[in-house]
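Recap for those who missed Tuesday's class. We walked through two folding examples back to back. For each one, the amino acid string is listed first and its predicted structure tokens come directly after. Nothing is annotated here on purpose, so try labeling regions yourself before you check the end of the notes.
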Amino acid sequence: MVTLLTLWILSKRRVNPRGDSDKIELESISPYSNSGVHPEVDREASLVVLFPNKNNDTKDLCMLEIIKATENFSQANIVGCGGFGLVYKATFQNGTKLAIKKLSGDLGLMEREFKAEVEALSTAQHENLVALQGYCVHDGYRLLIYNYMENGSLDYWLHEKPDGSAQLDWPTRLKIAQGASCGLAYLHMTCEPHIVHRDIKSSNILLNEKFEAHVADFGLSRLILPYQTHVTTELVGTLGYIPPEYGQAWVATLRG
């Protein structure tokens, strides 16, 4: 009886579950096996939403293309990091480059970051904001898709790149400051509802190939209605950049 039961269990293990033919093996895409990506992608389980461009066009994109473009989220393609995950450079077959933020960490915080970014950047559109091209939901993964900024962050040029600070002449610094200010002014005064970023710092100011500033990382942002002057909230942000009135009273305003 025991022998028959054992043979029955083994025979069941050999049966492929329904739907396996629709799954794509990813380990063959890249030699990186410790990237944290599940070895199989179910086409039906992945949701990729891309926002229309200025011409109201959209491009079809699947999870498999994202994984190929980032070389299975290779460490060699990491271009940024934050409290909620890593940002990867994605290069597609047609030469297009995008930045993919792969959220990680506490599930509750990750979902809040994901929702805040999509909610803010799907309505806020300005030349001095990093454009959200779309997002992807796949199993437990949350991906945000942005325009790629060729020159990285202002923080990189000021504090990390050798002689980077010396390469930023005063006209360029002024242009960056003006661009970031225009982006914030749009968030505070023009965008409906208004948005309080709550984490403005040099690493969240990204620069394109022309060193034009783009405000990024809206994971801690809060929406504020036009008739409101502030939001009372928990203390978040980066030490050294938090305004005293916000740090002491936990009141985030458009001025600080």
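Example two. Treat it independently of the first, because the proteins are unrelated.
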Amino acid sequence: MSAEKKQVPSVWTRPQRRVREQPALSRDQIVTEALALLDDAGIEALSMRKLGTRLNAGATSLYTHVANKDELIELVVDLVYGEIEVPAGGSGDGGG
């Protein structure tokens, strides 16, 4: 029996692995997509895993931008409140 020599590829000659190109996430993207998820399916459907799937990211990568689900909900509420247009001036009826 002869021992066959198996050639081990050198680290210097081995082709580089393809790096998966993923766009960087931002807090704004996460909050905007969370709002879309809430609009589509309601608050019961909001999970970091589902949100990560919609953003093509892992759920754990979301925690780089938001501390937890409660903070995410606060940020979504802030986004919604920021979109409310308050009429300029008063209605003139005194409000009460």
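Answers for example two:
The mean pLDDT is 86.
Residues 27-41 form the longest helix (15 residues).
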